[in-house]
Amino acid sequence: MANNEDTLMREVEEELRRERMEQLWKKYGSYFLAAAVALVLAVAGYKYYQTSRISAANAAGAAFEEAVHLVDEKKIDEARKAFESLVKTGPGGYRALASLRLAALEADAGNTAKAVGLYQVLVDDSGADPLLKSFAKLQLVALKIGDADFTEVENRLNDLTDDASPWRANARELLALAAFNAGKPDVARKALEQILGDRASPSDVRERAQVLMAEIIAADMAKGADASGAAGKDTVGKTNAVAKKRVETAPAPTAQEPADQK
Length: 262
Prior knowledge:
This protein is mainly α. It contains 9 helices and no strands. Helix 7 (168-181) runs antiparallel to helix 8.
């Protein structure tokens, strides 16, 4: 009897659950269906986005390699057009790389203003890769090193000369050069010492740092020699004046004391 009652109770409960589900479906079924459709569309859209993104990246990569190949073949005008197209339509990473290569072409062609402008656009691009942005800043400073004053160069290079910067050796070299040209040998010497004391400094940068350090030392020695020479001339002049005064005030020799013995 107990088993029959349990079975009856389960059947009743199942019937009640079924009725509740039917009522819920009648009331909210359209919402559930819409949510399911939205989920399917979202997944499909994401998959399409991924596929399109990969396809665009592959196409941009192939276009970039082709543009680099044109540069290697000395077809500069064609390469310039290819890079310009990537700058306008390429995905973020390849757009930044194309900007760097295009700026380098303009710099090699003597179009410094255009090159500086391209580098500056990349430096100001908040969405660009930080590594590429810092490299663009480095190249920009290298182009302006002869025209910009030392303060501007120093301000632009502040974060690039930090120990954590991958471009610290090159940035310190530019800072040392700007300081040397601005007549700030102490600042230049400090930057060069940082280069020479950093084991990660590239060999070519290290060699140029040694050359510039030698120039600074030579300039210091030359200044020291000039100062010593000036001091020596002053001492000789004073000595001559004293000697002349002594000759003028010395008593004349007498007949008993010949002048050649005086």
